[in-house]
Amino acid sequence: MKCRINPRRSRAAVSPMIYGSFIEHHHRQVYGGIYDPKSKFADEDGFRGDVIEAVKQLKTPVIRWPGGCFVDDYHWKNGVGPDRLPSFDKNWKVEELNTFGTDEFMKFCRKTGAEPYLCTNATASPEEASDWVEYCNLESDGRYAKARIANGYEKPWGVKYWSIGNENYFPYQVGGSDLDTWLRYSLQTAKVMKRVDPDIELSAAMTMDNLEWCVRTLEQIGFALSWVSLHGYWDFVYKGDLAFGTVPGPKVIPNAKNADYEECMRNVEKIRSPIARMRALLTAAGFDSSIKIAFDEWNLRGWYHPYILEGHPNRKEDYLPERSRNDDNSLYTMADAVFSACFLNECLRNADIVGMANFSPLVNTRGAIFTHENGIVKRSTYHVLDLYMNHFGNERVDIWSGNPETYETGGTECEVLDVAAAERTADGVYTVAVANKDAENSRSAAFDFDAGFAPKSFSIYTVNGEDKASYNDVGRDEICIVKTADKQKFAAGSDIRFEPHSVNIIEFEA
Ligand code: AHR
């Protein structure tokens, strides 16, 4: 394949927040994940020190919390102050201890260097959401800022990113809402939250599977939004009618499964559509310069959390043990790594409209980091986030492939190499991300630069394992970042080879 890079064309700042993440009160993400006062790795505040170090290496710029579905029944006031009682989490049907709440999350963000991004409960009340803004952002006016001060936090936390709701368009979720109720609720909530702090940046739950929801939400509260939230999990299937008021039919299959490598690669083809369609919608509605896309939950793998709604066709009685299936580290292979790289490449190619993306989740469940009694496992996806955050450029530039190679798999024509390019403006290095989807063969590409940039040498950092099914586990480190080329002489137009099932970042040095 031949690629031309034009350093002058399509320039757009890459938001580092596309390497963001997400933590939900689900299974062992919070308790036993980032927060575990009984662990031998616990710091003075009860946070896992080994997790904090791993997150700092990722330089995770933003973390969304507390859900996810959990937020539909979360009342933040239960999780602050000295008198905290457990509550029953009606979403996941477990007891929520409330020992980890807003102040603990803020401390975790401070320790890791991440910006907090709070998702509000859109089935509570507009007041509950705006009281939360008061607690976090007001200096001292009002009872909630005073409560924060009384709890020992003199300075406001200064939370900039907030969203109204989580997936409220899905009728069978606890927070599921009909459109008219949602519109009334979100308008009132946006107004009062912004009244408390006009500088906050608001997002709202959206899905391209329900165009009417998106169009009417933009009409109603587009003026108050800086973001629209999209979610994507690709290795499970939604089919059937999800409209409010209908019982999900037998074709709805919302349980996670484990697609094989080739199916994961075919799923790459589906990443493009929600971003392209949301871009078109924002443009058509005249919001493309004021609203960006926050892909604030994404992962190849949908989580194991069987549906527990009465009457749901996929309901399982033994839903609790099912969650432990997420802990099987052998499920997170080079398929996850290559898919994740392709997802990030799509965000990078759309850097002018995608401003945030949150890998879902950061720790445990199907996350990048797995915790156990004696340490952590960095899954394949961890190394991809590490690679991109620490090597890829911050200013997207144009990369054009005249004749991309394709391969046929299961009736789908897939491009073999998935590429994105950016300049790293701090040192003038041009970086190109290359994911090779081909599981059997190394593949090559030749690079050339327009507009006067003439690299002298290149280096390559690669995430890979011996096999497409390689994985990391306790005592097993098969996938890591390796420098596979070190300041090699660059010749324009000559082939550079990429290992099978690999994720690479080339650094072209002048
Ligand atoms: O599988 C992830 C969970 O389901 C999150 O709670 C929710 O937001 C999502 O769809």
Give a written overview of the molecule:
The protein has 510 residues and is α/β, with parallel strands linked by helices. The chain has 11 helices and 24 strands. The chain has helices spanning 49-58, 102-112, 126-137, 142-150, 179-196, 211-221, 261-268, 272-284, 319-323, 334-349, 380-391; strands at 2-6, 12-13, 20-22, 62-65, 87-89, 94-96, 115-120, 161-164, 201-204, 227-233, 292-299, 354-359, 369-372, 375-378, 395-401, 406-409, 412-415, 417-424, 429-436, 443-449, 457-464, 480-489, 495-498, 502-509. The strands form 5 sheets. Strands 1, 2, 15, 18, 19, 20, 21, 22, 23 and 24 form a 10-stranded mixed sheet that branches. Strand 18 and strand 19 form a beta hairpin. The two termini are 23 Å apart. Residues 238-255 have low confidence and may be disordered. The structure holds alpha-L-arabinofuranose. Alpha-L-arabinofuranose is lined by residues 24, 67-69, 166-167, 231, 297, 302-303.
